[in-house]
Write a structure and sequence with these properties.
Layout lengths: L2 H5 L5 H8 L1 E6 L7 E10 L1 H4 L4 E6 L11 E5 L5 E11 L4 E6 L1
Antiparallel strand pairs: 1-2, 1-4, 2-3, 3-6, 4-5, 5-6
Length: about 100
């Protein structure tokens, strides 16, 4: 189970999205059509691999099947405008996915 899933159950996800979430435009690699989703920033992992990588959590209700190569753009919130590309995905029992992104 993920760090996020260890601390929160599925009922907490909507509250966490409202409190910690940033609105993003999500672009699946298989489609040119974007959707608006809420992503929750978890942590930077750049110290591990010397790249500007971060881990985000996204609800499976927002994106049912994230894939490597998907990308999302966050405008505002705790970020200015940042684009992230999904490089790894891990699902958990809380109804979320952890996305490791460049």
């Amino acid at each position: 189970m993920s760090t996020f899933g260890d601390r929160f159950d599925e009922s907490a996800v909507p509250r966490l999205k409202a409190y910690l979430g940033d609105v993003a435009d999500y672009y699946p690699v298989a489609s040119a059509t974007a959707s608006t989703v809420t992503v929750i920033f978890n942590e930077y992992v750049g110290a591990i691999d010397e790249k500007s990588r971060a881990i985000f959590t996204i609800a499976s209700a927002d994106v049912a099947s994230p894939r490597r190569g998907d990308r999302f753009v966050i405008t505002g919130g705790q970020f200015t405008t940042e684009e992230w590309t999904v490089i790894d995905i891990r699902g958990d029992e809380s109804g979320t996915f952890e996305l490791r992104c460049d």
